[in-house]
Predict the structure.
Amino acid sequence: MTTHDFTVLNSELLVDAPIIGLRRDEVSMPGGGSAHREIVEHFGAVAVVAEREGEIAMVNQYRRSVNQRLWELPAGLLDIAEEDPLTCARRELEEEAGLAAQHWELLSDLFTSPGICDEAVRIYLARELREVPRPPAEHEEADLIFNWVPIEKARAMVMSGEINNAIAITGIMTAAEVLAGRAVARPADTSFPQRPEALAQRRIAAGRVPDMKKL
């Protein structure tokens, strides 16, 4: 079966904000002609399922876009130029949970909303934990609530709708499979071809390094 080659005919940057870009692509369509598609550009992100003795570290955080507090995994943006995802994950686990881990594995790479956004998130399983000082937080993270949740309770919270953050759902359900011995995690240094590049490459070319959020 032959599939159509969706060629980009033209591209226009509409918005350039600290943590996202918005562009409009003109794309060739099957049968002739073209159509415009608006795409939210993102740096990508990492999230961590940190497990000890059958419990996982979770945070409850306010999200302005949905005007709700959500149960989530410790997570953060890949907003440092060319930073290794595992390095970012180690930092985010320390900043949001006050934890460091000796053993890291890869649970999942997922696109969060591929209909409109190029964001991809890498989710790690972190074990052999120890507590470390948590640096001072600001903005929403200053109001963050941290809690240990049994993995089976977290699974039940997913099924009951108490947890509705897609990244947390994916991390919890894949971690539960690995921890139960029904699946095997991948090496933490597995390649990450899904990691978005458009926004980061434009910021790096403009000299917005190492912190690519600074415009």
